[in-house]
Predict the structure.
Amino acid sequence: MSPFFIITGFVTLLGAAFAMSLRNLVHCALAMAVAFSGIAALYLQLDAQFVGFAEILVYVGAIAILIVFAILLTRSGEAPEKSVLTSGWMAGIAVSALVFTMLGWAVLNSSAIPKETPPAPVATVKNVGDALMTKFVLPLEIIGLVLTAAMIGAVIIALKEDSQKSKSEVGGYQ
Amino acid sequence: MSPLQACLLISALLFAIGFAGAVTRRHAILVLIGIELMLNAANLNLIAFWRFSPHPEALTGFIFVLFSMAMAGAEAAVGLALIIAIYRHKKTSNLDEVKELKG
Amino acid sequence: MFDKLDQIFVTALHWLVSYVPEACRPLASSLICIAFVLSVFPAVFSVTTIFERKGIGRIQNRYGPNRVGIPFTKIRLAGFGQFIPDGVKMLTKEDIVPRAADKVVHFLAPVVMLIPVLLAYAVLPFGKNMTITDYDAGLLFFFAVGGAVELSVFMAGWSSRNKYSLLGAMRAIAQMVSYEIPLILSAVTVVMVVGSLNLNDIIAHQNQYTFGIAHWHVFTPWGLVGFILFFIASLAESNRTPFDLPEAESEIIAGYFTEYSGFKFALFFLGEYLGMFAIIGLGITLFLGGWTSPVSFLTWIPSYVWFFTKLMAIVFVFIWIRATLPRLRMDQLMNFAWKFMLPLALINILVAGIWHYMAADWPRWLVCSAIIFGAYAILGRSLMQNQNFGKRIYRYAE
């Protein structure tokens, strides 16, 4: 465990903690982007280069921007005056602490975990491409369908309503 | 502590933080951010196990994570579209106030 | 002899690194490469700003800056020393932060813009054996860090608490996201034909000569269309005219960097131009053969000279376009990306596939060119049906 690994893990967890606890939503979204870049750095240290670059491209480059746009479209840019926590927040924190304790205990006491580090795997783009086209071609095609359906669905859900209705609501504003 | 255990602990803690945020905060978008963090924790788990597995050349964990990222993108898009549509209808994105099926 | 000249920087790096103890050698090598990028590309940036001002001035029938030489001396360089006082001005201007601005995010936005742009230089091959990090998925790395720039644009626009900054930032992000798709799709055609995401493999694929002319991708039908699409998309990604609506002075003051002055503005300006050089560098690598020479009897010229010559040539074309073309409106810009460039990029992928699988003879040139030309004509005609243009009127300056 190199010091670089510890620092990256610490930055990731700090970013995630800030993302979940800050009052201002835009700050939360930016902290989330920091957490994603930390996770991408962790992937790069685990010799998963392609996944690390894809993580930055997909999460930081697209999902973080989506979330930021949604924050602006729902006028949540300013910090709220009332409390930001739900009514049952203590139970939530207790359950999440319990979840972490169970997972941590399972990880630390498991006998199925190898002690030494195997040699670095060769995950070149060519191997990934071969695997995607031979062994995993069915999930590839299905995910193409799923992404198309999600895109069309998201556009339809977020589309503005009938202009007749909105004009009658707003009055002679045009 | 072996490196695999360190990775798994980081991912478990990330999952717990994401879960705590998703269950505790009132704003719908923050719940979505929590869900994305949980997904990332699961992906990190998968990559850690792939790296330390006896046959990493099968690339199973790797490809799983690629598909998981694509699914996360699709789900974030649809979820955010839903939040925008609900905001347009109810003028609020506060989960405590969107608890009626009527309207 | 010319081989030694070609590899002079590589041998210099090895010689410098040999003075460092064995354990620190990777670190020393990276630091020297970083110093190289940080010194060469801001110098290219200064030269470009001067050429831009003088070039645009000449195209607009006036002189650009023509007096400043080296300050504090009597040497007059006909305006080529303008970047020195410009740099000093930007560094010494007062740093005004609006009172209601979000201080942390406002401070971090120029930094978050500059870092991904500098990271992108790590995978560009400046010459033979002169790539700083030769990743297996180098092209994907480049596009990944390109996507991180959009976050900084949002940070700049939102933290200024200025409705025009926010509007400019939203427009800039929408434009960058829309034009990323034709950019990546036109790069995908190259990846398909070469079979690798590694930038050095892509250059090696173009490093062959037939009848003395190199096999650059731009000399093939799909490569020409891909290069033109990549060129237009990179104009849009760098927010250059005709796509500079988010930051044009007459439109929205300065868009998302209205509230920035002094050193932070200098960082934004530097980041924008460095991003432009990086994306032109990638276009050169993908389509124009990188550091290879176009004709086989000129291969003795060092590879880095070719790379920087091509870079400056394309920068000159960027400047020329800036001085010549009018600006596109936001809806025209978005229509152009989604309705024209995206279908053309997809058809280009089809044509690249056909090219790859047909025999290497004259029929494939005919078939591919016919498909591309047909698609262009049909798309152009169908999209321009509702435009009613009058007769063109020309007015020349006296």
